[in-house]
Amino acid sequence: GQGVDEPLSATGFRQADAAGLFLSNVKFTHVFSSDLLRAKQTAAAILGKNRFCKDLEVKYDARLRERKYGVAEGRPLADLKAMAKDAGQQCPSFTPSGGETLDEVRERARDFFEFLCQLAVELEQKEHGKPGAPGRSSGTSGEQFVFPWTNHCSEAEPSSEGSGSSTVLDANILVVSHGAYMRNWIGYFVSDLNCTLPANLSKSQLSSVSPNTGVSHFIIKLENGNLLKPQIMCVCLNQDSHL
């Protein structure tokens, strides 16, 4: 939850370093992280291993915090499950006293995602507004956006027409957050925004919580800067081959 702001454990640091090595050839344009310590440390470890982005500024955002669990925070998961059972409910839909409902978590995710979309549109407009400057979408990506899961996660990875090279993106954003929060965010993508999913993804995988430092990759298209109808494609979900 939010109330117990503990640092990563020794295992957590090893996992964060492994994620950093896994993503070391991905050139990010922006990095956002939850302002809770474990997420901050994870983001720092990822950037510390990156070939291109060691000095990229991390922006911390409270909207990326883990779900608030109220009276259950700092207690074992078994206690939360017992509270839910006593209330005649099941996890994760159960909300402990003082905690956030799933709808409240989803609203935070929606608000942050709309902020990211606005950021991307403004970035694209700024690039094209420069006299004589080519847009980010021209040319080839070279080593800019080398996603390590491309060959084994999805056949839907976008490519430049006829060239076979990855499309140059207007923004390539790393977001470091938490398991329950991200499950709600993904639920928002699927139920509200009709996100396209990999064909081999099962319902249980879709509803599961990401493993620590699990990586999910989404490609967002905003046709003509239309913020109301983003096209979202999931390339991979909860990728953990680096662990």
Coarse morphology: globular
Name of the level-1 CATH class of one domain: Alpha Beta
Helix content: 25-40%
Order of adjacent strands in the largest pleated sheet: 2-1-3
Radius of gyration: 19 Å
Pfam family, one: His_Phos_1
GO molecular function: fructose-2,6-bisphosphate 2-phosphatase activity
GO cellular component, one term: cytosol
Protein name: TIGAR bisphosphatase
How would you summarize the topology of this molecule?
Elements: H1 10-22, E1 30-33, H2 37-48, E2 58-60, H3 77-86, H4 102-128, H5 150-153, E3 173-176, H6 179-193, H7 203-207, E4 215-221, E5 231-239
Parallel strand pairs: 1-2, 1-3
Antiparallel strand pairs: 4-5
Helix pairs in contact: 1-2, 4-6
Organism: Cettia cetti
Binding site for substrate: 38, 66-69
Keywords: Hydrolase
What labels describe this entry?
two-stranded antiparallel sheet; alpha/beta; Rossmann fold; 3-stranded parallel sheet; 243 residues; 7 helices; single chain
How does this structure look, described?
With 243 residues, the protein is of the alpha/beta class. The protein has a domain at 10-67 and 101-125 and 170-239: Phosphoglycerate mutase-like (Rossmann fold). It is built from seven helices and five strands; from the N terminus they run H-E-H-E-H-H-H-E-H-H-E-E. It has helices spanning 10-22, 37-48, 77-86, 102-128, 150-153, 179-193, 203-207; strands at residues 30-33, 58-60, 173-176, 215-221, 231-239. The strands form two sheets. The chain has a three-stranded parallel sheet with strand order 2-1-3, with helices on one face. Strands 4-5 form a two-stranded antiparallel sheet. Helix 1 (10-22) packs across helix 2 (37-48) and helix 4 packs across helix 6. The chain is globular and about 60 Å long. 28% of the residues are buried. Residues 132-143 and 154-166 have low confidence and may be disordered. Keywords: Hydrolase.
